[in-house]
Amino acid sequence: MNTDRHGLVGRVIDGICRVILWLSTTVIFVILVVNTALRYATGSSLEWANEIPELLFPWLVMSGVVLAALHNAHIATTFLMDALPAHARRVVAAVAWSVVAVLYATLSWATFNMIEIVHDEKSPILQMPGSLTYGCVMGGMLLLAVLAGQSAWQSWHCRDAAAQPDGEPQAPAVHW
C-alpha cells in the first residue's frame, strides 16, 4: 500500500502517524509489562500505571484510523459506485469526498471548541488535563479532513486513475 496518491502530504501524515502509533504502543506495552511484573514480584504496582495507557490509547487508535484512511485499509462497500458509469462515478466520488472532508473539519472544529472545557478535567494521580486526548481526536479529524479533501480533488481531476475500457478515467474509490 502506498501513499503516492496523496504525495508529500500523505508521506508526512504517514510518518507522523507511524511514529505516534509505535511510540504509544511501545509505552503502553512497557508500562503494562513493568506493572504486571511488579504485581507478581512485590505485590504492589505503580500508582500511575493505569493513567498513562488511558491517555495514550486514544493517540494509538487515532493514528491507526488516519493510517487506515491513508492506505484505503478499511471496510468499503463499492457495489453502488461500480454500477455507475465512469463519468458519474467521478462526480459522485468528488461530491462524497467533499462532504466527508467538510464533516471531518466540522468535527475537528467542534472538538477544538470543547478543549477549553475539558482542559480543567485532570487525571487523578498525574493531573494530566483532559484536553490531551481531545487534542489527539481534533488532530486526527483534521488529518482525515485533509485526506478526504485531497481525495475529492483527485476524484474530480482523476489525476492518478487508469483509463477504463470506455476511454474515461476511473475515479478513485469512494468508501462509505
TrEMBL record:
One of its GO terms (cellular component) is plasma membrane. GO terms for biological process: C4-dicarboxylate transport. It is found in: Cell inner membrane. GO terms for molecular function: transmembrane transporter activity. Residues 28-156 form the Tripartite ATP-independent periplasmic transporters DctQ component domain. The chain crosses the membrane at residues 20-41, 56-79, 91-112, 132-149. Keywords: Cell inner membrane, Cell membrane, Membrane, Transmembrane, Transmembrane helix, Transport. It comes from the Bacteria. It is a multi-pass membrane protein. Belongs to the TRAP transporter small permease family. The complex comprises the extracytoplasmic solute receptor protein and the two transmembrane proteins. Part of the tripartite ATP-independent periplasmic (TRAP) transport system. This is TRAP transporter small permease protein. The gene is yiaM.
